[in-house]
Amino acid sequence: MNSHSDEEITSAPKGNFIHKEIDKDLEAGKNGGAVLTRFPPEPNGYLHIGHAKSICLNFGLAQTYKGACNLRFDDTNPSKEEVEYVDSIMEDIRWLGFEWNGEPHYASDYFDQLFEWAVKLIKAGKAYVDDQSAEVIASQKGTPTQPGTESPFRNRSVEENLDLFNRMKNGEFKEGEKVLRAKIDMASSNMHLRDPLMYRIMHKAHHRTGDKWCIYPMYDFAHGQSDFLEGITHSICTLEFEVHRPLYNWFLDQVIEGEPTPERRPRQIEFARLNLNYTVMSKRRLLELVQKQIVEGWDDPRMPTISGLRRRGYTAESIRLFAERVGVAKRDNIIDVALLEHCLREDLNKKSPRVNAVLDPVKLILTNYPQDQVEWMEAENNPEDEQQGSRTIPFSGELYIERNDFMEEPPKKFFRLGPGREVRLKNGYIIQCQDFKKDANGEVEVIYCTYDPETRSGMPQSNRKVKGTLHWVSASQSVPAEVRLYDRLFMDEDPSGHPDKDFKEFLNPDSLKILTNCRVEPSLKEAATLDHFQFQRLGYFCVDKNSTPEKLVFNRTVSLKDTWARLSK
RNA sequence: UGUCCCGUGGUGUAAUGGUAACACACCUGGUUUUGGUCCAGGCGUUUAAGGUUCGAGUCCUUACGGGACAACCA
Q1: Per-residue buried b or exposed e for A435-459, using 16+ beta carbons within 10 Å of the residue's own CB
Q2: Which of A156, A94, A92 is nearest to A123 (CA)?
């Protein structure tokens, strides 16, 4: 009878503190029960994993409350912003699996309205034009512990302010000559309330409004009002804007004053931004990596950008899962990148086919295998998912195995090949090492083994227990490939914790290793760009965007959890 | 020295004032034709001290610790 409310109770999401705040607002009947969030990037760089957290939060909130989420470009500073960034941001959001509400919005859409509101503040005696230089204004601001002093221009008449502001707009002044400030309280304990700047002069073309404007609003004068104009109900941002909230509300109060009570009034809620160990997240630093060509570009697979992660082989699902697992709170946090990697493995484990590849090949000859014989062995594509079926792979008397799968003098816990030892070749036969040959440098050149014909995979005798199982490819049927092993870019756990130092000190010299002699099974010839695979026992790989049918290139997305690596440590 | 925010295992996130839970990491063991996956178990009594209460991670006070704020950036 009352199944509706039962359902609501049982299906109620756990929810973070933001859900609770929204629930409170809803219960109080605010905003007519609407929930409209927004994701407001400044188009001055590419989106990174930290933005992904914010995107998942804002769009996720919209989904759970059956509301919507706007995309708004916070483009109030033409000196930093470019169309390239606008495009990449939209692509990345879509790739993550989200669709914004209607058309994208731009703070620059509201320049006319903001100008009018500025005039309104001037007329109300709440804003004034200041002729002083940036340095003088800064020195009058005081410090967090000492009050500021008032500008000598603070008490200009409304008429003079109006005239000056219009002339600012009309381009009569040079950059830095004048600014418009809000008249609040130079003694406030909150620095942001000490007559903050509303407009500055910039004789720069804007990527959308062109040369129409030469004065541009500051973030504080644009953001809250943009939220208000769009009908945003919950304006979710990161912790550093906490001290801006009184100003956010102050501007809204001024703008609304004298108007009928608005249907919706936006409310700013702050949460702690994402930090990942071994990872630099600041846009300034990432831009530096790109400009100094320490990385190939914004989508370099070592970058924490969404496009970099994508090229590295991260799936959108894994990033959404990660965003869910890191949670949302107000505590400063440093998430272990191992969690990100875990989320990826969890997703890739169930969807990526297992294939054979040998990264560092050494030849293995089966001395008792019929010459020129080729057998096609059946191999499951994914033991985690029968639906993915199976394929056949060529087996012959001349194979390649991984160089480090053979040891001349194996230590105790080494389960793989050594003189006299037996191992299974995955999907093949059990073999025994009889002999090996070294080259002039003392490197193992060829390993000679015998195979046991009764132990072919699937045969009755094949159940015999052996300690190890190796992956392999047939020497003549396998195809050459280049494999790029990416590691973390920084060695320091907290590279952003040393703001004064040149971060080059913390770069990991092994962040990229290019292996050119790899061999992969023939089925990979037809691999499509960005498809991901689990290379048996080696990790998850994807085809790099620069790969061609003539030259296969793979990126290592993430390694398998490697117990042997830990044992040998 | 001011204002604001935050203190729960190694790392994160939970817990109508009522037995501290989940995930990652780590450690043990089991299954396995991947040293993967999967399964089972182990690892904290909530920064400290007071107070309110039958009962406090949760409320109050103080201390201590961490963070933010002094761009014509967002």
Answers
A1: ebeeeeeeeeeebebbbbeebbbee
A2: A156
Strands (E), A30-89: 36-39, 68-73
The residue that minimises its CA distance to C1' of B1 is A145
Through-space separation of residue A21 CA and nucleotide B19 C1' in angstroms: 29
Q: Would you say A305 and A46 are in contact if contact means Cβ atoms under 8 Å apart? A: yes
Is A551 annotated in the active site?
no
Positions of strand B less than 7 angstroms from a protein CB: 1-8, 10-14, 23-27, 33-38, 66-74
ipTM score assigned to the predicted complex: 0.96
pTM of this structure:
0.95
User: How far apart are the C-alpha atoms of A224 and A182, rounded to whole Å?
Assistant: 15
List the beta bridge partners of residue A40. none
CA–CA separation, A333 vs A325, rounded Å? 13
**pLDDT at A176 exceeding the cut of 80:** yes
Nucleotide nearest to A340 (CA to C1'): B24
Please give the C-alpha separations between residue A361 and each of A406, A480, A485, A518, in angstroms, as whole numbers.
11, 11, 16, 7
d(CA A55, C1' B57) / Å: 31
Q: How far is CA A230 from CA A37, A107, A412, in A?
A: 10, 10, 67
Q: Distance in angstroms, CA of A358 to C1' of B26? A: 30
Question: 3-state DSSP call for residue A206?
Answer: strand
Q: Percent of chain A at pLDDT above 70?
A: 97
Q: How many CA atoms lie within 13 A of A316 on its CB side?
A: 10
Is A42 marked active-site?
yes
Query: Do the Cβ atoms of A504 and A465 come closer than 8 Å?
Result: no
Q: What is the pLDDT of residue A565?
A: 77
The pLDDT confidence band at residue A48, using thresholds 50, 70 and 90, is very high
Give the per-residue SS3 of A365-388. Answer: EECCCCCCCEEEEEEECCCCCHHH
Q: Which of A53, A194, A283, A310 is catalytic?
A: A283
The span from the CA of A433 to the CA of A466, in Å, is 13
Nearest to A222 by CA among A76, A71, A79, A103: A76
Which pLDDT does position A14 carry in this prediction? Answer: 62
Length of chain A: 569
Confidence at residue A13, expressed as pLDDT on a 0 to 100 scale: 47
* Pairing status of strand A532-535 against strand A444-452: unpaired
| CA–CA separation, A328 and A17 (whole Å) | 7
A123 is catalytic: no
A7 falls in which pLDDT band (50, 70, 90)? very low
* A223 CA vs B69 C1’ separation (Å): 18
A378 forms bridges with which residues in the sheet? A392
Residue A99, amino acid: E
What mean pLDDT is predicted for residues A518-535?
92
